[in-house]
Design brief:
136 residues, elongated, 68% helix, mainly alpha
């Protein structure tokens, strides 16, 4: 358990990033349902949008939009498996405005539709419980 905690600390350590990128990452992860466009984040961080975009790509190796979509999909995956919320509600809570766009992005990262992901997750959880064969 301690080793797992240490791995998580290393994985989520932001000390190697510049202060603006640390702030951006923290805000994106804390507020996935808000406007996370480049322009909105730049205003929030009091930075030039072009500078923020360049810095983000330089330090993380992916675009800001890609990072935001990944975070939102991770949040959606958590909600799909831990709640019974309708997918439409999850889409809203993850900051997407269009369910079709959300489904396309979700499928790009998971190779499954949100509905299939939820169904597969539920069936995976059932294997954690003892398996009983009903006798006839």
């Amino acid at each position: 358990m301690i080793a797992g905690y240490c791995n998580m600390v290393r994985q989520y350590n932001l000390k190697n990033f510049s202060l603006p990128i640390r702030k951006a990452i923290t805000y994106i992860n804390m507020e996935p349902d808000t406007d996370l466009s480049l322009k909105a984040l730049a205003v929030r961080l009091i930075l030039n949008p072009n500078y923020l975009s360049t810095l983000f790509t330089k330090e993380l190796g992916i675009s800001l939009t890609e990072y935001v979509n990944r975070c939102r999909v991770e949040h959606a995956k958590h909600l799909l498996l831990s709640t019974d919320l309708p997918i439409k509600k999850i889409v809203q809570q993850c900051g997407f405005t269009d369910i079709h766009y959300f489904t396309r992005i979700f499928k790009r990262f998971t190779s499954l539709t949100p509905k299939n992901y939820r169904e597969q997750g539920i069936s995976d959880k059932l294997w954690d419980k003892p398996y009983y064969i009903r006798q006839t």
